[in-house]
Amino acid sequence: MAEERDAGAPGAGAREAVDPDPVAGPVAAPGGALPAYDAVMATRNRPEAVALSLPLLRGQTVPPKRVVIVDASDDPAPVAALVAGANAGPGPEVMLLRAAASSSAQRNRGLEALEAAGGAAEVVLFPDDDSLLYPDAMAEILAVYARDPGIAAVCAAEARVPPPGVDLGAAYVAPPPGRLRRTAQRLRQRVTEAAAGANPFLAIGRRLGGQHPPPGWLGERGTVAVPYMTGFRMSFRRAALARGGAVPDGFDETLTRYAWFEDIEASFAAMAHGPVLGAERALIYHHRFPGRRGDGFPVGLWSVLNRAYVAMRHVRANPALFPRPGREAWRLRLYLAGRAAAYRLMARDDWSRARARGAAAGLRHVGPLLAPETPEEGLSARYRGLMGRLAPEAGPPRLPEG
């Protein structure tokens, strides 16, 4: 997941979250009938989030064929009860799996379960457990796929407000930020805005996306090209999750635990198959769970090493588009140094100070991932070696008990 928003990160396209359009009109599919889709949702220790998101997913105006929830919770009972309750009523089947705690691995186990149950649908949605879909979000996404069988992936736009009729009054609520946190947020915003032009993911995604001529209908109903997708609102054509290189099909399990930027990595991989687009009329509200994910030190490491791994993997995999990988690595190192410096400036508590130390450690050890002599197939081993030495507690994932 792209847990922290990169500077210049796309909304649906290149803009921020949008308010719902009350006059959008019915969804049309000029290219033909809407394709079928399945949904795979990874979760861990957040049954209250699943309780909000699952009914909205199953209640879409175009419902999924099946929903797979892949649970890595310490206590499996709450999510199991939610799934049993859902299957007791009308609506699409909900399958429940237990898996090790890793966004990439959980999503892949869900895909495997769909294939074992008769094959995944043409399109697969991968919502987060806190993704609250507007009623016609998937109808809008599927209408984009229906326009052209060559479309590889489509993401929704982030709504500013919850879907109609959703009452968050009793749901988990993030506490309002204090004065120091507000100051740090403003500082971070200035730093990230200044760095927007240097964001390696934007530059790489635009170059990869440039392989495909834009569809002639681009712009209709708010359809835009995007340089990558963020995890809580991404969908893929099943065929676009197939790979022919150093990484197996699906999501890259080199990135363990919260797997920062595995969504961006999968977006880049899908661009080998066709355009990746945003549907700005497809709205999803991200009801972010309060609190931080993981200890500060590995989070700082991920912010550096995961970025380097994802960026250089696709630079090395596409020599025709990136004929000077050393230059790309130099630009990336400058960007990573800026991120590490921003973390130092924003360190105001024990967690953020640990994150700054992790980013500094990552910057000191990132060289093997950037080295010109490192081939694409050697990046996974080098990344795993670095993480195993610097933060062994961050991986590999273990299957939970129960």
Automatic annotation (TrEMBL):
Q: Where is this region: Disordered?
A: 1-29
The keyword Transferase belongs to this UniProt entry's keyword annotation:
yes
Q: Which residues form a coiled coil?
A: none
Regions of biased composition (Low complexity) lie at: 20-29
Q: Name one Pfam family in it.
A: Glycos_transf_2
Query: Where's the Glycosyltransferase 2-like domain?
Result: 39-156
Tell me if Transferase is a UniProt keyword of this record: yes
> Which keywords does this chain's UniProt record carry?
Glycosyltransferase, Transferase
Q: Which InterPro entries match?
A: Glyco_trans_2-like, Nucleotide-diphossugar_trans
What highest taxon heads this organism's lineage? Bacteria
Family, as annotated: Belongs to the glycosyltransferase 2 family.
Q: What is the recorded name of this protein?
A: Glycosyltransferase 2-like domain-containing protein
Q: According to the entry, what is the taxonomic lineage of the organism? A: Bacteria, Pseudomonadati, Pseudomonadota, Alphaproteobacteria, Rhodobacterales
